[in-house]
Specification:
Elements: H1 2-21, E1 30-44, E2 57-71, E3 76-84, E4 95-96, E5 109-120, E6 123-129, E7 149-158, E8 166-177, E9 187-198, E10 203-216, E11 226-241, E12 246-255, E13 274-282, E14 291-300, E15 332-344, E16 347-358, E17 368-379
Antiparallel strand pairs: 1-2, 1-17, 2-3, 2-4, 3-5, 5-6, 6-7, 7-8, 8-9, 9-10, 10-11, 11-12, 12-13, 13-14, 14-15, 15-16, 16-17
């Protein structure tokens, strides 16, 4: 931990030292960001595979992140960010008060971002570890807390037409697990996406394709076999009314791989490869006093997504019985109700209710779960 913190401070403070040594550099090129979250959470109605129920659970949780960006010149930027959270739980940087810290021991901290970015006219690219760079409108395919390692390029083109205003093309190659041999033998995913905006940005369409090579069936080195995903994603979001802001969104997922010849996949899951997410909301949290409401319905079959890379917010399902703390949120249908209020700039509160039910049971019963959360988010 001591070595990790020293490395983090070196990376964060090196640009500041450079600025101090060279008066021609503007110290405004160095910016810091951070945020703190406090969460109250309650779980109930968690039926297990054998038909029994887990005990109800109440938790107090928190998350802290701090980062720095240095704008080296008009086309080059460096960035980094550290956060709380266990290294093996990439989906979840939140820590539970009183949970396993050895009687007020130290807190686990790690890097979630470390990247170089360049921008030239209509094109941009980054190298390293950074935010998931493809357009998305929720965390049901990819969690906001999972930061891929790799290379990403993007091009943005504008048109003088309301029918098609902009076209953004995104592509990237990201390594999940390096083999130490040739690149072709790594576990990796590749993504390609086209984002178009229409009618004064009131309609956005973003078809995408993601290829995942040699993914483990169980994360964290506990796999019993590996297999590929070829996921076609078609997403769209539209503003129906601007004042009050009423908006809808839809995502369709289809894994194009044929699992019929794969004897390692149980028969009942071989064709579980599609998913759909639909939402309708009113309001956006932009200025002080704003309210926002959102309802989201989800139907995701087992292999429509990579479950340990998606969110783990909706319920308590995980791979703990198979040696991994990661969540396994696919193979379910569910509902989320969200309400948020912006107290002031960078200071908001929101409440979320989740209700889920498994699609295809692993045991004699379908798993279920209910959860409610209250989050207080403070940024600086």
């Amino acid at each position: 931990m001591k070595h990790l913190l020293l490395v983090g401070l070196f990376i964060l403070l090196t640009p500041a030292y450079t600025c101090a040594q060279n008066d021609s550099l503007n110290t405004k090129k160095l910016t810091f960001t951070g945020d703190f979250r406090f969460r109250i959470e309650q779980d109930w109605n968690n039926r297990k595979q054998d038909g029994t129920y887990k005990d109800n659970r109440s938790r107090l949780r928190y998350r802290f992140r701090i980062g720095a960006n240095y704008q080296f010149n008009e086309w080059a930027e460096f960035g980094t960010r550290i956060r709380t959270g266990y290294r093996k739980k990439q989906q979840d940087p939140q820590l539970t008060l009183g949970d396993g810290f050895n009687e007020y021991g130290t807190i686990p901290i790690g890097f979630e971002k470390l990247f170089f970015k360049t921008t030239l006219k209509n094109f941009s690219a980054w190298l390293g570890k950074n935010t998931f760079p493809f357009k998305k409108q929720n965390e049901l395919f990819w969690s906001d807390h999972v930061y891929p390692d790799g290379v990403f390029v993007s091009g943005n083109f504008k048109f003088k037409s309301s029918l098609i205003e902009t076209i953004n093309i995104n592509a990237g190659h990201f390594i999940m697990n390096s083999s130490g041999k040739s690149f072709s033998e790594d576990q990796y995913f590749q993504g390609f996406q086209v984002v178009t905006s229409h009618f004064n940005n009131r309609l956005i369409i973003f078809p995408s394709f993601y290829y995942f090579k040699e993914m483990p069936n169980i994360p964290d080195g506990n796999e019993t076999f590996n297999f590929n995903y070829s996921i076609l994603h078609i997403g769209a979001q539209a503003t129906i009314i601007e004042k009050p802001n009423i908006h809808v969104g839809i995502d369709y997922y289809h894994n194009l791989e044929n699992y019929s010849p794969n004897d390692s996949i149980p028969q009942q899951f071989k064709n579980q490869k599609k998913g759909i997410v639909a939402s309708v909301g009113i309001g956006k949290l932009i200025k002080r006093g704003d309210w926002a409401f959102l309802t989201t319905f989800t139907y995701l079959e087992k292999y429509a997504i990579i479950d340990f890379l998606a969110q783990n917010d909706w319920t308590r399902w995980d791979y703990s019985s198979q040696g991994s703390p990661d969540g396994r949120l696919s193979n379910y249908k569910g509902l989320e109700l969200f309400v948020g209020y912006l107290i002031r700039k960078n200071f908001k509160i929101n409440a979320r209710f989740f209700m889920v039910e498994q699609l295809v049971p692993f045991g004699i019963s379908k798993e279920t779960g209910n959860r409610v959360r209250l989050d207080l988010d403070i940024g600086f």
